[in-house]
Amino acid sequence: VYLGGWMCQGRMPGSVRARFAAQLEQDPENANAKRMLENFDRALSHPDEADLAAAAFFSNGKLAGDTAAAESL
């Protein structure tokens, strides 16, 4: 039985950032590479306390059968 899902993107290896940085060096106007670099930098702190709390809230709601609480995320 599938009860739903929750996801934290987590950290990525430095090689991923280097790849996006190289794309941006080749094309400084590459909007996608800029977005991906920004996303990489935001992901460095994940999973953080908020992610862990959200995961616990989601899973506790699903396990307890409280679909309203789990779906409110």
Notable characteristics:
73 residues, elongated, single chain
Concise overview:
With 73 residues, this protein is mainly α. 63% of the residues lie in helices and 0% in strands.
What does this structure look like?
With 73 residues, the protein is mainly alpha-helical. The protein has a domain at 10-49. The protein contains 4 helices and no strands. The protein has helices at residues 14-26, 31-43, 49-63, 67-71. The relative contact order is 0.17.
Q: Strand content of the residues, in percent?
A: under 5%
What does the radius of gyration come to?
A: 17 Å
Q: What would you call the structural class?
A: mainly alpha
How many helical elements?
4
How many distinct beta strands? 0
What ranges have pLDDT less than 50 throughout 5 or more consecutive residues?
none
SSE topology sketch:
Elements (H helix, E strand, L loop, with lengths): L13 H13 L4 H13 L5 H15 L3 H5 L2
Helix pairs in contact: 1-2
